[in-house]
Design goal:
The protein has helices at residues 26-29, 55-60, 71-78, 116-133, 143-150, 183-203; strands spanning 5-6, 38-39, 46-50, 98-102, 137-141, 158-159, 168-172. The chain is of the alpha/beta class and 211 residues long. Strand 6 and strand 7 (168-172) form a beta hairpin.
Length: 211
């Protein structure tokens, strides 16, 4: 199936790289308001959903791009990707049946800069994207992302007790280097996602479609 990247209103071309700023300080990154494209299409096994882009990721044009973010190493360790991918390869996750998006498209220095109304609107817009593309599972990377979508706290880290409209739901702690205190819980949640994904892939029929 043809790859689709859904860009935010202020975003540029899907997958386009921008030069990384030489000074990744908040002041240097403030002039980079561009959004990131959502890498989504029908029939995905898994969508990884962050809260909203950080200023560094927005500046370079790729998901979870700030040095020290654990996202890409965790994907490789959990077997979600077959090797360690670089942030600039984010669009190629679609070839593995894995998508990327954020609850809120607007970049910010931190999630605290996003107001309650914007989280609610982002959660509702995400629900519409999920209804449209119908992935088999979603893993929210960050408790804030899940709460914005579900309107309630998570039950636990990892797979939630109830699916959402037939879609399996996982919640993992943020992969930011500022959340190192939850490193063990974060790793366990990603390992659980990876185990679920391997089982799904093994059960896929020869045509590659599990639905």
């Amino acid at each position: 199936m043809e790859r689709a990247a859904i860009s935010g209103a202020a975003g540029g071309a899907a997958g386009a790289s921008r030069s990384a700023p030489t000074d990744p300080s908040p002041i240097a990154l403030r002039p980079a308001p561009s959004t990131l494209p959502s890498y989504l299409r029908s029939g995905l096994d898994l969508v990884l959903c962050g809260c909203n882009p950080g200023l560094f990721s927005a500046a370079v044009g790729h998901y979870f791009a700030r040095p020290g973010n654990a996202f890409w190493p965790l994907l490789a360790e959990a077997g979600i990707t077959p090797r360690l991918f670089r942030p600039e390869e984010d669009g190629t996750l679609l070839d593995l049946g894995v998508g990327l998006t954020d609850v809120v498209a607007r970049p910010s220095l931190g999630t605290g800069e996003i107001g309650a109304a914007e989280w609610r609107a982002g959660g509702a817009a995400l629900a519409e994207r999920l209804r449209c593309f119908r992935p088999a599972a979603v893993c929210f990377v960050g408790d804030t992302a899940f709460r914005a979508f579900a309107g309630r706290p998570r039950e636990r880290w990892g797979r939630q007790g109830n699916d959402w409209q037939g879609i399996v739901i996982f919640v993992a702690p943020s992969t930011s280097g500022r959340v190192a205190r939850l490193a063990a819980e974060r790793r366990a949640a990603f390992v659980e996602v990876g185990a679920w994904l391997r089982t799904r892939r093994r059960q896929a029929p020869p045509n590659g479609k599990t639905r």
